[in-house]
Structures are given as structure tokens and as C-alpha cells.
Amino acid sequence: MNLVFDGVSAGYTAVPAVHDVRLTLAEGEFTAVVGPNGSGKSTLLKTLYRALRPRAGRIVLGGADVWGTGHREIARRVGVLGQDQTGGYDFTAREAVRLGRYPHLGTFDRLTARDEAIVAEALDRTGAAHLAGRPLSTLSGGERQRVLLARALAQRPGLLVLDEPTNHLDPAHQIAALSLVASLGITVVAALHTLDLAARYATTIVVLHEGLVVAAGTPHEVLTPRIFHEVFGVDGSLVPDPVDGRPRVLLRELSR
């Protein structure tokens, strides 16, 4: 599904956290939204999955206005892994992932064998199958993050929205999670803190700075010495990985 931000402004105070965002993201692209702390990454994503209504502008997904579409339809089309998904600790991991199937059911429907197979597959693909019977309250932050990603995958969405999806994950699970997301072939928008992960896995990078889009394009187009310096306050280089040639980021203390 193509995704369009058309002049979107939003925030919680008198001064918008994001201002006049204009982006067109192609179907099937993995877009990483990056920027310093407080640049508006999470605010922008919340307008997309309807946690925060824009003050101005509109968001169009697959030709439909996100804020003019029914909640249930959005729940079918958009899977979300947010930073503040902390409820439901009395659920087991399997029960939490089952919630991803409920937008596809009628009011009195029950999960079918196909639904249960989708749940099992999502747990397996995120490396969380062995956690299925455990309550969320007993899981580590990284384990819980994998279960919540599995829940989003179980929705079978056309758009996956991820707000800092590698939080709490060790390096092996960071790589596994982003490799999986990149392989899905669906539209992905992810706020990422680590520029190296954004460069390696995203096809498109959007840089936010003080609520404004200051660059958007491929990693090679966007992650330039000027952006490293002016936006992130570091010296940096984009270099090919010596093993597979994919772009990697090297950062250094800003030279004086």
C-alpha cells in the first residue's frame, strides 16, 4: 500500500512536534525514520496508527484517509509495535499473539485452525515459539518485544509500523528481527535509533530534525557527511560491509 503524508503537523503542546510533513512512501518499501531524541519520530508514527490525531494535513494509505477509515478496518490493515505497549501482562505469549487475529473476526466468531496456524507461525518466525505458554509478566524486555512483534505479524497487515523495534533486543535478535521485517515484502515504517541498522535494512531513510523532514531517499542519498554533522553532531561515513557490500555507518566524535 502506498503511504502519503500530506502536510501533517502534530504534537502535544502549542508548538507542534512535527510540522508540515510531506512524504510519499512506495508500497513494499522499508522506510526508516531517524533523527536525534526529540526530533518527532514517535509523534509522526502515532499519527499513522491513530494514537494522535494530526492538527493539520492528512495521511492516505492505499488511497484511503487513515483518519476517515473505520477503526476495525485500520486494525486489519495496519500492524503496530509501539514503545508504550505494556498492558496485558496476565496473558500468555500465545494469547497475546492471538489478539492480532481478532480484527479479522466477526463479533461472535472464534479463532479457526487457520488463525491458530498463523499465530504459531508468527511466534516461530520471531524466535518466540518456546515462550508461547509463559505469561508476559515473566518475560524479559527482549522476549516481550519479540512476542509483541509476533502479534503485529499475526495481523497479516499491509502496513507494519514499528517504533524503536530493537529496544531491549540483544545484537543477534536485533539482526534477526530487522532481517525478518525486511523480508516480508510489505510496507514498513520504523523509527530507528541506530543509524547503522537503518542503513543496512531500510530501502528509504527519512531524517527528522526539530520536527521537520530535512532529507529523504536511499541510504546513500541521505546519510551524508553533512547530515551526520548538522543533524546528529558527529562525523560519519557510509561504507560497504566487507562481507556482503550492504551499507554500514561509521561514526566518530565531531572534529573541532
UniProtKB/TrEMBL annotation:
One of its GO terms (molecular function) is ATP binding. Residues 3-235 form the ABC transporter domain. Gene3D superfamilies: P-loop containing nucleotide triphosphate hydrolases (3.40.50.300). Keywords: ATP-binding, Nucleotide-binding, Transport. SMART domains: AAA (SM00382). It holds the Pfam family ABC_tran. Transmembrane segments: none annotated. PANTHER family: ABC TRANSPORTER ATP-BINDING PROTEIN, HEMIN IMPORT ATP-BINDING PROTEIN HMUV. This is Iron complex transport system ATP-binding protein. It comes from Amycolatopsis endophytica. The lineage of its organism: Bacteria, Bacillati, Actinomycetota, Actinomycetes, Pseudonocardiales.
